[in-house]
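Researcher: Please translate sequence to structure tokens.
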Amino acid sequence: MTAALLSIGTEITRGEIVNTNAAWLAAELTAAGFAVGSIESIPDDMDRMVATIQALAGRHRLVVVTGGLGPTTDDLTVAAAARAAGVELVRDESALLAIRRRVEARGKTLNAGHEKQADVPAGAELLTNAVGTAPGFTLALGETPVFFLPGVPREMKRMFTDQVLPRIRPSAPNNTFQVRLRTYGLGESAVGQLLAGVEGTHAGVTLGYRVHFPEVDVKVHARGANQQVARDVALRAAAEVRARLGDVVYGEGDESFAEMVARAVRGRGYRLALAESCTGGLIAHMLTHFPASDYLVGGAVTYANSAKTRLLGVSEDTLRGHGAVSAEVAAEMAEGIRRTCETDVGLSVTGIAGPTGGTATKPVGLVYWAVSHPGGTVVQTKVFQGEREEVQVAAAYAVLDQLRRIALGLPEREL
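Model: Translation complete:
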């Protein structure tokens, strides 16, 4: 059973916003056992919308549409859905009441735009919006159910999870299973070479790769006579993938890199402090995106040499002799923040993120990072390629991976 995704909005086709909805929905539908056969984005054009909805419903057994359910004049999806189904628009009084209550709870007055959101195609089944005003709805075009959801990601995800999935899951073929492995430390080409031949030794398995700098996800997708068979095949293939890639596999599914670093630190019982220069607080942001007060004590962003000396105790002689971007300064920064915050571990990063500041001997992208821990102080270096933000992200990942390896007792790895 193939499914189609349609994202509606001129702001998408003009490139004004990134269409994250389609990627999220495709992953959710795949996980639920559906094969996504088409993903399209179209502007707010009535004739185009009607024709596309009808065409997708004619080619697929499930269609999910996002966007265009709002209160403004360019929100045309409801009218297009009615025209595609050959029915009239009707006002749903229960939807209007829910919209009124939500609007008035915010201290605002109901207007014509709000009321417009209560209009749905005749015969459609309403999908209530638990976190916004615009309700969704579903209606059938021929034998194909078509679901219309808001374009706001938070509203769309909640509605899909709570109301769409329970309705469509019974119709899923349920003959597929996917394992998503998260990796850091190797590029896509290197990962692909290491995994050459896996598909040939596991019938029904397809490997997919998703690069989101600086990580590479490996998706082990299996199809079998039923979901249990597919699951068994996928897990066997995933075990081989793990064995081939080794410790560059840091997690699975939705586990994030920062979460897994934190888990390793907690598991070792470490208390951590951070000293950042070229990353400007990015490492702290990555770690504190999740609860971290049980292991992260604090840190400092020390851009100027004077701050490195005053806050971290970096020697002025070291700065004069080796420069702020050096292995020696990175080591003293990590040891200094560890000493200042009285922690088990201190980590540091110093470098030239660019686009200016590089020299013949210290080019843009040169970064040193260090981890000071009970077993000593480890310093590494690399010249990272890319724009300023890419250098900063690469540096943050590098030092966090060094911390992960120390906490887990893994060997050092040259990037």
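Researcher: Any highlights?
Model: The radius of gyration is 26 Å.
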